[in-house]
Design goal:
single chain, 262 residues, mainly alpha, two-stranded antiparallel sheet, 10 helices, 2 strands
């Protein structure tokens, strides 16, 4: 029924899935989708530019694919390595999952996909924030990072400081050639970071990638979403993807505690 509410110019879900699959075969900066096709400003980049129900549809698709395809492989690898998830079931990290991770991880791993000139200085800053973890210090650093993103608007066109945010024409050509490497490396790095979510009784380097297969696949979808629509859309999708399993756990725990003998 949501299809009848589809705004003009918005591709169908099927068309977006096909675009994603073609994108995986040949990652490229390419044209943007929908409302972002004509917008390159910071404001346009951070605006989702797509109905919430379309992002929810992508989150649902990721939940289903991960649940029935990749989660069983990850579970088998966890059992083989004795890996245990660090998640505290009785202290669910709502703020971290719904705000901290979507904002900080998207800025760390995917913001430079459309602004590769910033990879030298912006990514190290975001990695420092990511390693710091949620807290007052890292929040202040994150605010500084967001201010730096808007810095080009403070200088006139062609100002020498804008070189830290933009590429010359030869550099743009090189960035387009190297873009597939940048895209896939960002997805792999995003997945690898999530190994920290586990505690290990024994190590098996061969099986470690299987533990984060869901994050790797999700990272590719988020990278496509960031490239095609903007970082705002990838942040919202990231939050939806994280929120679904947490909500399910909260409901299960609520009813489980209600059924427990008092």
């Amino acid at each position: 029924m949501l299809g009848f509410w589809r705004p003009p110019g918005l591709p169908t879900m099927g068309e977006e899935i096909l675009d994603f699959l073609r994108f995986l075969k040949r990652p490229r900066l390419g044209p943007r989708l929908g409302a972002h096709a004509a917008g390159r400003s910071i404001r346009a980049d951070f605006s989702p530019g797509v109905p919430w129900w379309r992002l929810l549809g992508w989150a649902l698709l990721l939940w289903l694919v991960n649940l029935f395809v990749f989660a069983p492989l990850a579970l088998s690898a966890a059992q083989a390595t004795g890996a245990q998830h660090r998640l505290d079931l009785y202290n669910l990290p709502w703020l971290t999952a719904l705000i901290w991770a979507p904002v900080i991880e998207e800025l760390t791993f995917r913001y430079v996909l459309r602004r590769p000139a910033m990879i030298i200085w912006f990514v190290p800053l975001m990695i420092a924030i990511l390693v710091q973890g949620p807290g007052a210090t890292s929040a202040a650093m994150a605010i500084l990072a967001l201010l730096l993103l808007a810095a080009p608007a403070w200088y006139p066109a062609g100002h020498r400081w804008q070189r830290a945010w933009t590429l010359s024409w030869p550099q743009r050509r090189a960035a387009r050639r190297l873009y597939p490497w940048l895209f896939h490396c960002s997805a792999v790095a995003f997945a690898a970071v999530h190994l920290y979510n586990f505690r290990f009784d024994r190590m098996s380097l061969f099986l470690l990638p299987l533990l984060v297969l869901p994050q790797w696949v999700t990272g590719m979808v988020l990278g496509w979403m960031r490239t095609r629509r903007g970082v705002g859309a990838s942040m919202v999708l990231h939050a939806l993807f994280n929120g679904g399993p947490l909500l399910l756990l909260a409901v299960i725990l609520h009813f489980a505690s209600g059924l427990a003998p008092g």
